[in-house]
Design a protein that fits this description.
Blueprint lengths: L2 H9 L3 E6 L4 E4 L1 H6 L19 H9 L9 E6 L5 E13 L2 E11 H31 L24 H7 L9
Antiparallel strand pairs: 1-2, 1-5, 3-4, 4-5
């Protein structure tokens, strides 16, 4: 493998699996190996023998004989320690000149993406609840409810970096604006 090809493949920010037309796994990049830790796939293995292991391997096995490859597929895999893992991937023909010699899968672990989205939703809900508690407290102390507006901004308006506990503490705040 040339240095430039090796550099490109090692810097790619997704998992890559290349499989020959006979089903032999020809290449798994380091990110792909890490993503697939819960169900490892090794170079030299035959994907057809692993097709029953999970839906990702089954799609890869079946795709070898397809004339048109699906462009976007999502599957669920058994993850590490029994957790569920979600992969999003696209398939491409692997060619040597004009001759099709196999398929290539480019994939990402969507589990972390979904967890980040869930965390964002949780942060938003907690922010709204915090603002509503303060508004209720102000109303209970006699301020007319029609003069109170509560808004939660979640993580959309930080005043500090969330890289430290102190920054996260500073971002868990309520700002009160009094308009005349």
């Amino acid at each position: 493998m040339s240095n430039i090809v090796s550099s490109i493949l090692s810097s790619f920010r997704a998992g890559i699996v290349a499989i020959g037309l006979d089903g032999t796994v020809a290449y798994v990049n380091p990110i792909g190996a890490k993503i697939l830790e819960g169900c490892p796939l090794k170079e030299g293995e035959n994907i057809h023998g692993r097709a029953g292991d999970n839906s990702f391997f089954r799609v890869l096995s079946e795709a070898i004989s397809m004339n048109y490859l699906p462009t976007r597929v999502e599957v669920e895999l058994p993850g590490k320690e029994g957790d569920r893992q979600f992969l999003g991937f696209t398939l491409s023909d692997l060619k040597d000149g004009e001759k099709r010699v196999g398929i290539c899968a480019f994939f990402k672990d969507l589990t972390q993406v979904e967890m980040a989205e869930e965390n964002e939703k949780l942060n938003q809900r907690l922010s709204e609840e915090r603002a509503n508690r303060i508004a209720a407290s102000l109303a209970a102390s006699g301020l007319p409810k029609q003069q109170i507006t509560a808004k939660g901004f979640g993580s959309s308006r930080p005043v500090a970096s969330n890289d430290s506990e102190e920054g996260r503490r500073r971002n868990r705040r309520v700002e009160v604006v009094i308009e005349k």
